[in-house]
């Protein structure tokens, strides 16, 4: 019963309802190390109010979580972020942001299940944390693109230098982005969709 004593269960808010033209949906995961901007990206690009599972960081995480470069961060994702974006009138992407701290990485397997592809967010101040992230995607066979999130105090490198440093094959797209900006985050997702389409076309010719 609702608060008015009615047996009617309220449905989703109008702004959260799927477009009536939607015909297909795909699951995309946004992954990366702690504090690289996953929650920010999901929030900036989602057309619905995003679901977040952020909790306040406490002193219990000192010595356990690596928050280098994110000393001002006061909350962290402990399960996932969730958002949605319509790429076309027919295609909808469901976005799942993963927790960044290694002690929560056991949740990744479930989040990777059924994922069509992934965006790996990278902070150039901590390139080394990206290797484990990409390794997990490769183990699960999840195709991915790499997005270099532009932090004001982060060192800047040429894209090809970053490709070499991250040991990326020439076919994997890599680009700069600003996860705070909707247009930039959408461009990353569009790059991922074009990459997935190219893989599908290549596979169909094999």
UniProtKB/TrEMBL annotation:
It holds the Pfam family ATP_bind_1. SUPFAM superfamilies: P-loop containing nucleoside triphosphate hydrolases. Keywords: GTP-binding, Hydrolase, Nucleotide-binding. InterPro entries: Gliding_Motility_GTPase, Gpn, P-loop_NTPase. Gene3D superfamilies: P-loop containing nucleotide triphosphate hydrolases. Belongs to the GPN-loop GTPase family. This is ATP/GTP-binding protein. The lineage of its organism: Bacteria, Bacillati, Actinomycetota, Actinomycetes, Kitasatosporales.
């Amino acid at each position: 019963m609702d608060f008015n004593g009615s047996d009617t269960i309220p449905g989703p808010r109008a702004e959260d309802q799927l477009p009536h033209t939607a015909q297909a949906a795909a699951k995309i995961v946004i992954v990366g190390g702690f504090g690289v901007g996953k929650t920010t990206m999901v929030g900036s690009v989602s057309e619905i109010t995003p679901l977040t599972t952020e909790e306040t960081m406490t002193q219990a995480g000192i010595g356990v979580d690596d928050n280098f470069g994110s000393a001002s961060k006061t909350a962290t994702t402990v399960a996932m972020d969730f958002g949605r974006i319509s790429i076309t009138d027919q295609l909808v992407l469901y976005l799942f942001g993963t927790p960044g701290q290694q002690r929560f990485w056991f949740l990744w397997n479930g989040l990777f299940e059924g994922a069509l592809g992934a965006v790996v967010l990278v902070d150039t101040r901590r390139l080394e944390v990206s290797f484990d992230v990409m390794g997990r995607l490769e183990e699960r066979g999840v195709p991915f693109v790499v997005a270099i999130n532009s932090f004001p105090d982060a060192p800047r490198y040429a894209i090809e230098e970053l490709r070499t440093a991250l040991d990326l094959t020439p076919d994997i797209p890599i680009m700069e982005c600003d996860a705070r900006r909707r247009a930039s985050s959408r461009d990353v997702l569009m790059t991922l969709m074009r990459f997935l389409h190219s893989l599908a076309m290549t596979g169909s010719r094999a």
